[in-house]
Amino acid sequence: MVLIDAAPHTERMAQSVLLTGAAGRVGTAILGGLSDDYEWRLLDRDPPTGDQPGEFVVADITDGEAVREAMEGIDVVIHLAGDPRPEAPWNSVLTNNIDGTQTVFEAAVDAGVEKVAFASSNHAVGNYETEERTPEMYRAHDDYLLDGTELPRPSNLYGVSKAAGETLGRYYHDEYDLSVVCVRIGNLTEGHPPIDYERGQAMWLSYRDCAHLFDRCIQADYDYEIVYGISDNDRKYYSLERARDVLDYDPQDNSAHYDGDERVLEPDA
Amino acid sequence: MVLIDAAPHTERMAQSVLLTGAAGRVGTAILGGLSDDYEWRLLDRDPPTGDQPGEFVVADITDGEAVREAMEGIDVVIHLAGDPRPEAPWNSVLTNNIDGTQTVFEAAVDAGVEKVAFASSNHAVGNYETEERTPEMYRAHDDYLLDGTELPRPSNLYGVSKAAGETLGRYYHDEYDLSVVCVRIGNLTEGHPPIDYERGQAMWLSYRDCAHLFDRCIQADYDYEIVYGISDNDRKYYSLERARDVLDYDPQDNSAHYDGDERVLEPDA
């Protein structure tokens, strides 16, 4: 027998990716950029409102049985599900964010998943923004920089829950050799960066940079990482070094290239 | 009017200290050394078996109402209550250790408590003890040292819960100006250090050093601290620098001064 068609062997099989919290804002940005690139299984407690790629599982992240079933045949998990409100009360983040994330890591290990990208948050380190440092740290000339090696310093109980999720990831990596990347997501907005909000401009994440960053979380090889998920903003006080070095993240956007809601085609130096 | 008896003003009033998990091993060591020094309110889910100083509250740490009541008139809280088993299942540490600790911090802030000393654990950083580093790191000649600025790296879900408690402490300090010290307790044994167990000898904490350390947590002034709770062991891989500098901790014991279960009066150099 002569093999005359090698295409099925040379063409890379699309990876199966489970996206929890798919209907949220981060999920929307990811699917906006990557819907055709992977075999998607989307999970959300709310049913889809429009056309979605792949399969859709309607389930709450605290439903262990449903989460375990959703892991079957999955290569990579992007775990976004949880209560996204910075002002969420303790009981909600304890259940949805801390317990929910443990459920995801445990199920991922049991199912033989290779990688989990966990949506952490800038709120896990929000209290580094002390009165003494702000607003100067939000400005381009200031060189204060967090790089992901600092201890958590949450600005709310939501941030506490995200830091706990990062620590769970560390444990599941160390114990079970699961690749885990925690992405401390900044201020994600569609279109232009936040207006008249220096902090938001400093940690802006554009939709296309968001999709690209999670694409790199699916593709890259890593052990355990904490990275910052922001665009390449002049105003940034989060280092992009680990995201660039480990994930090959190459952001295209910068909040400084906008004036109000207008894109400035020739950015100022 | 002439003040002729200044004694009530110069003699320091004993501080009121709430000790949660009072019936456990750490509580026993603390009360063994400090029972006469403070106005104690002891809280445990198990009623006392012997004579105890002060008041005793029988309550579970997850009983928010009981914890809030127990905070009344308290200056300092030593929070030990929780599931102490390194192999404890997730649901237990989620409820007893993570949720229980949030209940304690929240109630402490509401009651106007000044300081909380939180019993964290060596298990919060147990996975720094990698195959490559052990057993060398347990030996006196090895200079590997954790100092409390490193990110958590738990060796079990119990350790994850202790790291989450530390992060809660950071939050309650930053937001409410509560003084918080997290003590990563090593291997506490009464009498002599563990025999034929290098790791235990490296992180040994004697009963008298334990009582003295928590005495310093009651007395010293601090903002937010993570310290290691061990004796001054030759084998140590945990730094005592922050405990010495911030708390004025001055440990008297060293596991190297024992040979088997015998105290060596003239320690080897």
TrEMBL record, chains A, B:
GO biological-process terms attached to the record: glucose metabolic process; pentose-phosphate shunt, oxidative branch
A UniProt-annotated Pfam family: Epimerase
Active site: Y158
Reactions the enzyme catalyzes: D-glucose 6-phosphate + NAD(+) = 6-phospho-D-glucono-1,5-lactone + NADH + H(+)
Binding site for NAD(+): N96, S121, Y158, K162
EC number assigned by the record: 1.1.1.388
Domain of life according to the entry: Archaea
InterPro entries reported for this sequence: Epimerase_deHydtase, Glc6PDH_archaea, NAD(P)-bd_dom_sf
Keywords, alphabetical: Carbohydrate metabolism, Glucose metabolism, NAD, Oxidoreductase
Function of the protein: Catalyzes the NAD-dependent oxidation of glucose 6-phosphate to 6-phosphogluconolactone.
NCBIfam families: G6PDh_Azf
Sequence similarity: Belongs to the NAD(P)-dependent epimerase/dehydratase family.
Name of the molecule in the record: NAD-dependent glucose-6-phosphate dehydrogenase
Organism of origin: Natrinema limicola JCM 13563
